[in-house]
Amino acid sequence: MLAYTMLQNFFPHEITTPIKHYSKKLLNFFYPYITITFPEYEADDDFQRSSSYASIKRYLNTLSSAQAKHLQASVAPDTDAVVLAMASNSSEEVADVFENIKLWWSSGETQPSSQTITFGPQEADKRFFSLTFHIRHRAAVCDRYLKHVLEQGKEIAVRERKRKLFTNSRENEGGGGSHFLRRRLWSEVVFDHPATFQTLAMDPEKKKGIIDDLTNFSESKDYYKSVGKAWKRGYLLYGPPGTGKSTMIAAMANLLQYDVYDLELTAVKDNTELRRLLIDTSSKSIIVIEDIDCSLVVTGQREKKEKDEKKEEEEKDPMKKMMMMGKEKKESEVTLSGLLNFIDGLWSACGGERIIVFTTNYVEKLDPALIRRGRMDQHIELSYCGYEAFRVLAKNYLDLEEHDLFGRIRELLGETKMTPADVAENLMPKVKGEDKEGCLMRLVEALVKVEEEEKLMAQKLAEEEEEEEKKKKENGVAENEQASSSRDGVVILNGA
Ligand SMILES: Nc1ncnc2c1ncn2[C@@H]1O[C@H](COP(=O)(O)OP(=O)(O)OP(=O)(O)O)[C@@H](O)[C@H]1O
């Protein structure tokens, strides 16, 4: 230090510069390492936690729990998991290897200064991570390693967080009174649905196709970018009630680790609010509109016309008009074009990595524009329980893979229409300890009953058709007779 001060004060610049240069080289020769520091708070904002610090912390947790001797334990927010991290004042190092480059991480705390008055977090709270590596790896570390650490840290955050289920509703409109507060558009709860593709009962080939499609989507960020397409995908799930549409959405969310936004379209005031709701969703999410056929004017012009006619009729009657006035105000003004914009307008591209799912029991009611390919990329039909789907349910509910009754059940399932929900209900033990055969027998009996009902129904339909046919014939004969009698009449008249 003395030599350095003397050098600065007593020697001219022409001499000090080369001396400094060579002494630096000498220092590098004995200590050829670089250290980068990552503080917990942004350099220019004492209140703003640095997102890179958080990502590094997550990335280092695995290394620290395997290597460090001094660890700090905490419970991650939103989860019950205990997280072990490197103790910040232990001056311990954990090593990492990347592309055969060895690097060392350590953590530290800035010591508080007794003379400084701080308004942000106390200096003692100012923690940091330090990364040390050989000078010759500078480019590799700065260009690739740091990017790798930050990306991995973010991925761990997504994997570890508790996923949320968001819902919108009209009640959110109040926003807690003050108009200065930003109105909350979505209410949230922790999403904890146990459904997975493994427990979803459907044809295995079809299931594999859907899983591949979803996985491929979630890994195709670069592909979507290269073809200039927004990173989103639409799925239309259709089929009778109880065939597993909602269950499949939960399985999708669990597979991809996405949040779910359950959009109640009838509670959305207008297209502007719909757009705001969309902007307020995060990436890595599934936006669901269930029973879309019941939601809107998405059923095409036919229903709109019917509605207009009804409205006209009601307006003629003053009593009905008064009753409708209060009701009308609450009716959603979202239009089909607003919804189309929601799916593939400019705003829909913001954020990226989103899946939009529509479910319906009546696919034929939907406006073709809404479900054309490109908007709803995959149309998935969920149907009545087949034998393969039954095997999944038998495994789920009874832990059975084979049984003598399976043959009979296969036969009956081929002849009847029973939803997976009904099959599951029959398979579920009704009293604790009920034997598996008893549950299978209950299903057989239920299937036989459905088969009989279906036969009766078919018979009734056939009889009705026969009756109709008979009536038509009788009417035809009567009309013919009438026509011929009127022709006779003409002949007579002509004759006259
Ligand atoms: N394919 C399936 N695989 C596993 N379980 C199913 C399946 N289908 C239905 N279930 C069971 O039946 C219940 C109802 O199913 P779900 O709500 O998914 O049907 P849905 O098609 O969405 O019905 P809706 O059209 O009435 O909303 C679920 O809780 C689930 O346990």
TrEMBL record:
A Gene Ontology molecular function term of the record: ATP hydrolysis activity
Annotated TM spans: none
Residue ranges, annotated region (Disordered): 303-327, 459-496
InterPro entries per the UniProt record, alphabetical: AAA+_ATPase (IPR003593), AAA_N_dom (IPR025753), At3g28540-like_C (IPR058017), ATPase_AAA_core (IPR003959), ATPase_AAA_CS (IPR003960), Mitochondrial_chaperone_BCS1 (IPR050747), P-loop_NTPase (IPR027417)
Gene3D superfamilies the record matches: 6.10.280.40, P-loop containing nucleotide triphosphate hydrolases
GO BP field: response to stress
Catalytic activity: ATP + H2O = ADP + phosphate + H(+)
Keyword annotations from UniProtKB, A to Z: ATP-binding, Hydrolase, Magnesium, Nucleotide-binding
Presence of the UniProt keyword Magnesium in the record: yes
Cofactor(s), by name: Mg(2+)
Domain AAA+ ATPase: 231-386
Family recorded in the similarity comment: Belongs to the AAA ATPase family. BCS1 subfamily.
Entry protein name: AAA+ ATPase domain-containing protein
Annotated source species: Salvia splendens
